[in-house]
Amino acid sequence: MQKRIALFGSTGSIGQQALEVVKSYPELFTIEVLTAHSNADLLIEQSKTFRPNMVVIVDDKHYQKVNEALSGLNIKVFSGEKALTEVAAMDHYDIMLAAIVGYAGLASTWAAIQQGKTIALANKETLVVAGDLVSEAVIANKARIIPVDSEHSALFQCLVGENPDHIEKITLTASGGPFLGKKPNFLINVKKDHALQHPNWTMGAKITIDSASLMNKGLEMIEAKWLFGLKNEQIEVIVHPQSIVHSFVHFHDGSVKAQMGLPDMKLPIQYALAFPERLPNNHKRYEIKNFPSLTFEVADTKTFRNLALAKEAMFRGGNAPCVLNAANEIVVEAFLKNKIGFLEMSDIIEKCLETIPFLEHPSMDDYVACDAETRKLALTLYK
Ligand code: NDP
Ligand code: MG
Asked: Which ligand 1 atom sits nearest the alpha carbon of residue 207?
């Protein structure tokens, strides 16, 4: 039977690669839902090709255009933020691919969890902001999360057939980004064009800046904590510039497993969509002889302070990761608009972590309020 996919964030980097995967296996997958924020043209083009049942264009300025372009195709068109959660709660799909970027992806993913859905999760911010509540809700509603983030897909693949109680620790690999080896006297002057040039991966703008600042790896530590039920002390990071080993699991008998492959998100996407199957493909292969030296080094958290700040927020728990995430979304946007420098991003995040009152056990409403409050504060800190 075909799996019916609800692709949230279909116009993004993950969304577009997911549609390539779907196209390669028409007998296995069909598209039920496509969503975009404002890229109406691409959403229309995707809808004409994949013929979903429903589409959501969040920005209602584009509703009329999308609705007219798709008229006569038997596709229901919705707009507005609320439509995302309403469509996510419907029972006409089998698996959600959560590929909206940032905090904006939380509400629809949360709605799908309440319905006991299976979610292929690319949107790491959902687990960073509210990982405790999300994990509880997954169990309570018999939902399931299968990671799409390459490091977490690697860990997940290493853990198939293993007892999670046998994990001693995990090591997340980080490419180091375009500024690996650079020091603050260099970073103080870098601009977005340079920061957007990732050596190994082509991704959306936000995650590319997060990779350059190592915030991405910090968010991934928190993501791993909730996905695999780990203690903070069990999570470590190592820089691996070739991005071939996607992460390691260390077991309590001393055995270490790694998952390897060329950096290509289509593999973790197809693995999550097809799980528990492993589908054949003809993507370019990793040839060991072409990579005679895989190297590993400790991350420079004195220079890349975002990683240290994220780790601190993880250990603090409560609403600290929510503050970290909200402040980070604001500073990344500001950096992308050339309003603040690369190193200022960490200063503002740190200030937010110091200023916003700590809550040990926030409710979902607390998280929503904390996100809004932090954004407001972060904006005043650079304006
Ligand atoms: P992109 O920026 O490329 O795409 C984001 C998608 O989300 C687009 O479809 C966009 O619509 C939509 N979107 C943006 N803002 C909103 C909003 N406020 N409400 C609803 N929809 C919105 O991001 P990526 O594909 O790179 O990343 C998506 C997620 O996957 C992120 O959480 C990222 O961390 C994670 N991830 C990405 C990887 C990658 O290789 N790209 C790797 C691992 C994880 P529109 O196009 O209309 O703006
Ligand atoms: Mg990743």
From this structure: 34
- pLDDT, tens only, 87-108: 999 999 999 999 999 999 999 9
Give residue 294 CA to ligand 1 midpoint distance, Å.
30
CA distance 105 to 23: 24
pLDDT at res. 367? 98
Tell me the average pLDDT across 204-223: 98
Q: Whose CA is nearest to atom 26 of ligand 1?
A: 204
Please state whether beta strands 144-147 and 118-121 pair in parallel, antiparallel, or not at all (unpaired).
parallel
Average of pLDDT values for 200-227?
A: 97
Which protein residue's CA is at the shortest distance from atom 43 of ligand 1? 149
Tell me which residues have their CB closer than 6 angstroms to ligand 1. Answer: 9-15, 36-39, 58, 99-101, 104, 122-125, 149, 201, 203-204, 206-207, 265
Q: Determine contact, residues 307/215, Cβ cutoff 8 Å.
A: yes
Residue 10 CA: nearest ligand 1 atom is 9
User: Which residue minimizes the CA distance to atom 42 of ligand 1?
Assistant: 149
Longest dimension (CA), the chain: 61
Pair of tokens at residue 268: 């973790």
Question: Is the pLDDT score of 1 beyond 90?
Answer: no
Cβ neighbours of residue 248 closer than 8 Å, sequence gap 6 or more? 158, 170, 171, 173, 256, 257, 258
Atom from ligand 1 closest to the CA of residue 122: 30
Q: Under a CB-based contact definition with an 8 Å cutoff, are residues 264 and 272 in contact? A: no
Contacts of 99 (CB under 8 A, 6+ apart): 7, 8, 9, 10, 12, 14, 15, 18, 105, 122, 123, 148
Q: Which residues contact 165 (CB under 8 A, 6 or more apart)?
A: none
Predicted confidence band at 174 (pLDDT cuts at 50, 70, 90)?
very high
CA-to-CA separations, 32 to 22, 202, 252, in angstroms, rounded: 12, 26, 43
Ligand closest to CA 122: 1
- Is the preceding omega at residue 276 within 30 degrees of 0, hence cis? yes
DSSP 170: E
Can you tell me whether residue 216 is helix, strand or coil? helix
Name the phi and psi angles at 318, rounded to 5.
Answer: 55, -135
Q: Closest ligand 1 atom to the C-alpha of 149?
A: 43
The closest of 56, 8, 6 to 31, measured between CA atoms, is 6
